[in-house]
Design goal:
about 325 residues, alpha/beta, 8-stranded mixed sheet, about 40% helix, about 15% strand, globular
Length: about 325
């Protein structure tokens, strides 16, 4: 997640019940998903994180914009998606004198006049490997895309997944993508779901309060788990949903917290340690594979998949 000027200010049965009771689409009320969203194996998500860590370690300790570690991260994701049957596109741009890349992956089929997108930024800061920020979101989006392929899912709407470059420099990649869409193609995107930091070691469970249907979809999922949520405010407008929102596209997303301090009330609700940051390694060299809370990563990855299935059906 981009740093602000002040320093940045369960089960499957429960899921099924929520899906039967709620359902919905970005356009309004709709029937339950055509098929139940799968459980996303957290071990698979963590395997992607291990690969991103190895890439950073082999490339100067980071996966930052314009650096070899970023391109290697993109190549890793692209190879997985190509093998799974996605149509992938690499979009190139320039920022701060360096070449950046977005990776876009389209799942064949679905109504291309109604596109549901899920995305995350793939770059780290130069200080570290960026495994929570934002390997966590990137790995969960990747594993959800692969789960779509494994399931042979055929949604009513068209599914598109994206991994953005240069978010840490001011949402450069996602803004480039949105700015280069025709007005007709912008209108075809019925919702963009953003996942930036979803495995924080002292986690909270925050839901964006932008599009009400997307917000409700995430809240319904967590309610089915008995997990309380709060409205996300720490990163509001400072991640890759912002260019989409500014273009009039409905947005939503999840967040587990950065360098804001967990309150006593939040610790009572979610566990963890009051008086400490949600992620003490935010934008630091210690943002490694050791900097992940498996429970938060698992819950948020499953919520991601639930939203993709629900909103695209």
């Amino acid at each position: 997640m981009k740093l602000s000027v002040p320093g940045r200010t369960a089960a499957a049965c429960a899921c099924s019940i929520v899906m039967l009771l709620t359902g919905g689409s970005i356009a309004g009320a709709a029937p339950a998903p055509l098929a139940a969203a799968p459980d996303i194996p957290v071990a698979n998500v963590k395997a992607h994180l291990a690969q991103l860590q190895s890439i950073a370690t082999a490339n100067g300790g980071n996966r930052a914009h314009g650096r070899a570690g970023y391109k290697a991260s993109l190549d890793y994701a692209k190879a997985k998606l190509d093998a799974a049957g996605y149509t992938t596109t690499i979009q190139q741009f320039t920022s701060s004198g360096r070449t950046g890349y977005n990776l876009i992956a389209d799942w064949p089929g679905g109504n291309t006049n109604q596109v549901v997108m899920a995305g995350s930024h793939l770059d780290s800061v130069t200080a570290g490997a960026g495994i929570n920020d934002n390997g966590s979101g990137s790995a969960a989006v990747l594993e959800t895309a692969l789960a779509v392929a494994r399931a042979g899912y055929q949604p009513t709407k068209h599914l598109r997944f994206a991994w953005w470059g240069a978010e840490e420099l001011g949402m450069v990649g996602s803004r480039y993508y949105v700015n280069n869409l025709s007005s007709a193609n912008r209108a075809r995107i019925t919702g963009y779901l953003n996942f930036d930091m979803i495995g924080s070691p002292n986690p909270g469970y925050f839901v964006y309060d932008d599009d009400p249907t997307i917000e409700k979809t995430f809240k319904d999922y967590f309610a089915g788990l008995g997990v309380a949520t709060e409205i996300e405010t720490e990163g509001d407008g400072r991640s890759d949903h912002a260019p989409f929102k500014n273009a009039g596209i409905p947005v939503g997303g999840l967040f587990s917290g950065a360098d804001y301090i967990k309150t006593a009330a939040q610790a009572a609700k979610w566990g963890g340690t009051a008086g400490q940051a949600f992620d003490r390694c935010y934008h630091s060299s210690c943002d490694t594979t050791a900097n992940i809370n498996d429970t938060a990563l698992d819950r948020n990855a499953d919520a991601l998949a639930y939203a993709v299935w629900t909103l695209s059906s």
